[in-house]
Hints:
The strands form five sheets. The chain has a four-stranded mixed β-sheet. It is α+β, with helices and mostly antiparallel strands. The longest helix is centred in the middle third of the chain and has 34 residues, at 242-275. Helix 7 runs parallel beside helix 11 (184-194) and helix 11 (184-194) packs antiparallel against helix 12. 55% of the residues lie in helices and 7% in strands.
Amino acid sequence: MVDEPPVTARDAETVAPAARRRWRWTPRRLDLAVYGVFLLAALWVTSGIWADPAGRVAALYSSDPAQVQFFLAHSVRVVLHGEFPFFTEQFNYPDGVNLMANTAILALGIPMVPVTLLFGPAVSFVTLVTLGLAGTAAAWYRVLSRHLVRHRLAAAVGGWFCGFSPAMLSHANWHPNIISQFLLPFIVWRVLVLTRSTRPVRDGALLALLVTAQAFVNEEILLFTALACGVFLVAVVVQQRERWAAAWRPLGAGLAVCAVLAGALLAYPLWVQFAGPMAYHGLSDTVRDYGNDIAAFFTPGSPTLGGNERANVNLAPNYSEENAFFGWSLSLLAVGIVVWLRREVVVRALAATGLFFAVLSLGERVSWWDRDLITGPWELLVKLPLLDAVVPTRFGLITTVVVGVLLALAVQRAAALRVVERRTMRTLTAAGLVFALLPIAPMPLRVTTRPAVPKFITADRWRQYVGPDQTLVSVPVPAMGNTDPMRWAASTDLAFKIPGGYFLAPRNGVTGDPGRFGGRPSGIGELLADVEATGRTPKLDDRQRRRFLDELRHWRAAIVVLPLNEQNAEPLRRTVEQLVGPARQELDVWLWDVRTLTSQSA
Length: 602
């Protein structure tokens, strides 16, 4: 056995630098660390749902997650069964639903098919929310760090705010399609590349592919991106008109190529959306005048460290539409950054863009602390084509991105200042960021439990009753305020059809009419919803019984199902028994087999 030679002091001095070189923070490791922080933050925000994806949902409202889970299950049917992707009869049967007009998130749902199959649509939903937050932050960090700022901390700050702003946290409750903005930084960058491109055909084709993919994530966000790019470029050209002479040819050629290629790829889906069955024109009046209150820009968002739900109740249309809520500290900092860097063309253009869309986000009536002041400029635009399908409060999402980019520029400029005491400058910069961002730091989404899918559904007991062209009718009937049956169907990969549901459709089911939430008005649906809300059992007459049977025949109902644990289940059972006779209990539901009443011979 040979003894090892002792390690000398000189050897130790040689090994130490080598170890330091081996473990130093390379640019790639820095990038991975930033991405890891973003992912951990997204998991923190969604931790309440991850604890029980199937049994927990955002505490304030549960309809949108159920709708998204239905769309995720539809993507499974598209992949496994080759179903038509842009329209379905699996809910709102027999009229069906125009999925292109309802943000069916095919670009998200189809890649998630393996997760949906293995773990269910509830897990896919929370996965999309988590990846939407982290992915958006990471994408903005990537673009900012490669093309706008050299300082990675500056890019990380900008990416953080773009991914975890109060507006993004608000939409994280229900809208994975809105927070999945990871394509937008690349779309914006490719548009800017076109202004100086030497290969506009290639660059226009790349932009077209990005635009096509984003159209199947969320068209409204795509429209916002196009409008924001247009306003920003105009703001730059107004300041430096000489730029237009060099930029208009490649920009025009590239956008023309993009329009032709993206138009060809999207022509049929857009035809289905605007002219196909169950197409509608314009949003429901319920959401058309959604706008921000001016005070919303100076108040922390509800799902943040400094947020207060009660204080915010009248400053936004609802808790999923808190599209501003920067807080006083960040609002003041943003104004200070613009004043400090006002000599820079990009900063002035960003400021003009952010302010323009902040004003539009106020909606048709400008208000301050829920008191109407004047008519807003949106009143002049709301009836224009495409804009008539926009929710104005969401223009605040553009202002959010502008603030994120301004933060990145400010940190970059602060790091580049030539001052005697650099440590003092770094301390002041960190203090400013903490002052601005700590009050709106993300907190875990507040969640509540929701009823489990009945064993009658999960055990496939329904299959012995419901045929391919028949429906399972729940009590109450599926509607905007009762989306649990949509979760039942989603848990079976939409193996059975249901009437009604939560979606946008033309009024009274007439293609081309203005949009509304839900399908044709249902007499029995309204009756049962009232019984569930009040607990009172009405006395029904023969006319009401005939009307209910007509609706059951129209829906081609096979069975009517009432969960035993439904709110006011006993008054609901007594009401339905007046219409179709006695119920029988099967597992955890009351069941009415109505096939003999709804068959064509009957």
